[in-house]
Amino acid sequence: MKDWRWAFVGFLYFALALRIGAVELGRGQQTERISGSAGDVLEDDPVGRLKVFVYELPSKYNKKILQKDPRCLIHMFAAEIFMHRFLLSSPVRTLNPEEADWFYTPVYTTCDLTPNGLPLPFKSPRMMRSAIQLISSNWPYWNRTEGGDHFFIVPHDFGACFHYQEEKAIERGILHLLQRATLVQTFGQKNHVCLKDGSITIPPYAPPQKMQAHLIPPDTPRSIFVYFRGLFYDVGNDPEGGYYARGARASVWENFKDNPLFDISTEHPTTYYEDMQRAIFCLCPLGWAPWSPRLVEAVIFGCIPVIIADDIVLPFADAIPWEEIGVYVDEKDVPKLDNILTSIPPEVILRKQRLLANPSMKQAMLFPQPAQPGDAFHQILNGLARKLPHNKNVHLKSGEKILNWTAGPVGDLKPW
Amino acid sequence: MKLSALQQGYINRRSNSFRGAPPLDASVDGGAKSPAAVFWLVLHGFCCLISLVLGFRFSRLVFFLLFSTNLYSTSQQRTTTDLSDALTLQNKMSSSSSPNPQLPPNRTRVVVGRHGILIRPWPHPDPAEVMKAHRIIERVQREQRLQYGVKNPRTMIAITPTYVRTFQTLHLTGVMHSLMNVPYDLVWIVVEAGGTTNETASLLAKSGLQVIHIGIEEKMPISWENRHRIEARMRLQALRVVREEKLDGIVMFADDSNMHSMELFDEIQKVKWIGAVSVGILAHLSDSDKELSVVQKEDVENSPMPVQGPACNSSDKLVGWHTFNSLPYQGKSANYIGDRAVVLPRKLEWAGFVLNSRLVWKEAEVKPGWVKDLDIVVGEGEDIETPLSLLKDPSVVEPLGSCGRKVLLWWLRVEARADSKFPARLVIGSHSYYVSTVASYSEDMLLKLIHITYDIYKVTNDVI
């Protein structure tokens, strides 16, 4: 008898809670909660779940490089610099390395820029190697795990393979000394040499203030069906097509250049951000590397990303269910792109827009200064926290050595 | 932007790697004429010919077959043959039989190297897809309106006085299309001078809107003075219909020759009781070189388009009215319909006002205290010039359109000569004399229309 009463009370309470939730959803903007394969983790707070120790490297590894070329703060690889700054003043930082779960080495490997602003990766392996030699000789923590509880931020094209050309990057492979460490990188492609198991994929850096400055009122009707601005043929390096983007961008152009639904061109309009907010779908095809800042821009401006890159691993793939938010199109299906997009039921499209409108989704793609809860910095820390506690074999038995310090191309062994 | 920098940088950095150089393509220096050089030259030319015939550079294929030094088979492998299913490949493909079809399990199935550019057989838009896409766009925009637009939109009640004349079809079609595009519920009250006619009725039936078509017996007079008066009376008649039918919504006055922007209808939804919008006046001077002195002409043409509407102070409160200044046109305005001179509006036009329909209802409870009853006002025998006469206190008017700064509709009066013979429906063939009558309307009438369209274009680009 008593159980029935409790059950009834419980049922009433449950119904009330549900009703409140429903009302909340109806009020204001309609959004939906986002939960990926790791659960509803976008809004987790990493403070208290992990401790990070930041090595004090001499400034030639970080500050001096930045002073030499301050353009590193605005290009799309700037995440490594901002992450360093964030960790220095974050509550997860600990000054006592004995209690740290993770160790961070602040070395800016992507800051050697050409006059045009693109990073040259030729010295990066030596720089990284030199930094690791430093930390392994000055602190005991590297040697006791050979880097198993260390993480590095390598935002370059192919991550820790340190080359911009895919064939060469595959040839080099991931830097041998980093094979036990956790890598935080923008590159992600399944079954690729340059993506290690257990890496954390992050979005490329996009300047948050610049994007916020171009917001238009949300009641502006979305009248462009598909939007894209960028190259289709990289005329300087691959004029015939076929290499650049594995021919996918050229295919998009050849099939849809006269289609009124597709607003695609190679122009650089000043209203690029505003136009994205007036479009329903934004194409994010691969280029020389599969990732691009277009994904971040599409998410911020509420345009559904159409991802044309086979086997790509998108940022924070365990926290964000990208299949529900974006549209994946195989490269071989590009000629049927219009058919694919128009056959998506309108309810699905509206649901994707609701997911994109979720502010925690937008926040997770940004690197704001100063850091805000739920932003990409916190997502990285959440990802690191989810990897805790460390595996048993992270700590090596005494005398055990796994890394071969002379492995890799001969040029890498030169001191930096 | 990043893209161009990226491209240029990659040009600089990558130019060596892809331009290189199987010895077949290596250029032979001009001077050396040794047999080896000649041999390479001939071989090079021969290979070029073969490439021309085949349609692709086969040098990499040769190298793959001859010198497969690279341990990494993926980097040299060509595209798999599944590309050819149901798709035609244009001449950019380099095919090869892939000698190693079975990839080791942890290698990527995505190959590095040259791929074909896939083009479907008919790379042009498919009309069925285009229609589906438009339906999706419509649905998305409807959802946007639901979320960010006006919540609980009220019915619009549009009041249009009209009468049968040459340009009726022209003007009425314009208003009809504007009203058909309004995303809210709409009731259109069309008042016709001279009684309801079948011509007007058949025109209105094409709209698919809910129309109340009423008529008054008096015919539209010739002089503009009287026409303005009769129009006011027609509008009052329509307000009586609103009162009797107890139509609930927002009343706006859509004169048949005016031009309305779609933003007007969104803005009107904000009115509480009575609101005013800014009206752009397109009073155009034709034959201006003959009738005005140079100084006066410059005056009028250089001044911006005259705008009638509410005037606000810096804290967005209504302080007065911008009215039409008819001084420059003194003595030169049109007196009768079809007069070639410019037609001037009244001080304040009806079209600039919107009312909550409850203001004209009989019951006193639903109305605020400052509005006079319609029957009392009109019963006094005088016509009212503007809806302001219905108010005891004109300061309650709400200025709309960011306090009158945005011009949301344009006023214009263009009419053909009152005695022009016009066919209700142009029939080609048997009534050719009608065609010639139409053609006789003068190119100055057409010129006037062209001038006016140009003015509208100019002002809309300045104002919006």
Automatic annotation (TrEMBL), chain A:
Residues 1-22 form the signal peptide. It is a single-pass type II membrane protein. Residues 49-344 form the Exostosin GT47 domain. Keywords: Glycosyltransferase, Golgi apparatus, Signal, Signal-anchor, Transferase, Transmembrane. Coiled coil: none annotated. It is found in: Golgi apparatus membrane. Transmembrane segments: none annotated. InterPro entries: Exostosin (IPR004263), Exostosin_GT47 (IPR040911). GO terms for biological process: glucuronoxylan biosynthetic process; plant-type secondary cell wall biogenesis. GO terms for molecular function: glycosyltransferase activity. One of its GO terms (cellular component) is Golgi membrane. Belongs to the glycosyltransferase 47 family. This is Beta-1,4-xylosyltransferase IRX10L.
From TrEMBL, chain B:
InterPro entries: Glyco_trans_43, Nucleotide-diphossugar_trans. SUPFAM superfamilies: Nucleotide-diphospho-sugar transferases. GO terms for molecular function: galactosylgalactosylxylosylprotein 3-beta-glucuronosyltransferase activity; xylosyltransferase activity. Its EC number is 2.4.-.-. GO terms for biological process: cell wall organization; glucuronoxylan biosynthetic process; plant-type secondary cell wall biogenesis. The chain crosses the membrane at residues 37-56. One of its GO terms (cellular component) is Golgi membrane. It is found in: Golgi apparatus membrane. The keyword rRNA-binding does not apply. It is a single-pass type II membrane protein. Keywords: Cell wall biogenesis/degradation, Glycoprotein, Glycosyltransferase, Golgi apparatus, Membrane, Signal-anchor, Transferase, Transmembrane, Transmembrane helix. Pfam families: Glyco_transf_43. Involved in the synthesis of glucuronoxylan hemicellulose in secondary cell walls. Belongs to the glycosyltransferase 43 family. This is Glycosyltransferases.
